[in-house]
Amino acid sequence: MTEIKVAILGASGWMGKVHTMAYQTFPHFFGVSGGTAKIVALVEGNPLAAEDLTNRAPGAKILRDWKLAVSDPDIDLIDICLPDNLHYEVAKAALLAGKHVYCEKPLANTATQARELADIAREKGVITRVGHAFPRNPVHDLAKDIIEGGEIGEITMFRACQHVDMYGDPLAPFMWRADGDLAPTGIIGDTGSHVFSFMDFLVGRVSSLIADNIIVTPRRPVVRGLAYGEQIELSGNEEWAEVTNADATNLLCRFANGASGIVDFSRVATGRKFKQTYEIYGTKGSLAYTYDEINRLRFYSNDDRIGRSGFREIDVGPESANFKAFLPLPNFGLGYNESKIIEVAEVVRSITTGTQMWPTFETGHHICQIVDACMESSRLKRWVDIPLA
Fold it and tell me: Cis omega before residue 83 (within 30°)?
């Protein structure tokens, strides 16, 4: 049994907690034949937040500086759960140190940075992974099997959206996700990249697009130390900060295979706590998915006889190995944390077998290309082509 020694950077944040849980629990569901993991270091720059970390991963070193983890010869895998603006710098340092790297999305601030990271990873021969966990829900493996089996024919059109209302209220407090320095791509890299991961996984490469990025609420009150999702009553004496990245995006795109796409996403869709959908139309049939029915896919086939045609509901179940690892019966919903457990198990298996698994830094580069194109298109108010490489 191979044991992978892991350092989690940004350990006290939401993603840091999720990743910590996933490393500790995946052997319970997937066994240890593909390797196991030991968290040997947790990195947290905030000393107050770091106090609780010793209880989450007993025996792990608690570090204040990510550079200490990168330079530690005892660490195999650097797991990056830091704010967006740090991803490129930290991932590059880890790759140059010969570490395997698992980085939350977006991989980098620009496609140029992501290209550099993918090239270094290839030269070093290390395993890379970007944290696009939503497509690791087994229902999307089913969708991919149907598409690759030709059951809906040639894909002609893709429609998708992802909306939350964290900033639906104009008085919702400012946080780092609205800061163009800490999160340069705003909602495009934060939420759009999730939709783009479905596009890459299920449809293929995007070749061109036109996008409109919008700042809906330009100023927000500042509440220090507020975490994602926390609620607070304003005093009326708060300072105000400028929102310097996009709140929402609408885009049209073309895929390299000739399909067209219509996509929208935002953080200001009042009342939408989490809405994620896609529809994929082909020459022989179609697929439809909504996160509200998280393990259910709707499938339509032109082969159905007249008078009996319509969308059928397919609940993914134990015929999928990743589903069966958790549950013996279909329609017992797997959620986001289970997708992360699947993702972490795949990262460990990739390292122990030396086999790259989707989505690698090459995938991350293409998704960063789409983000870049959205930024450029909205600024220039025109279609933008996305180059190969």
Answer: no
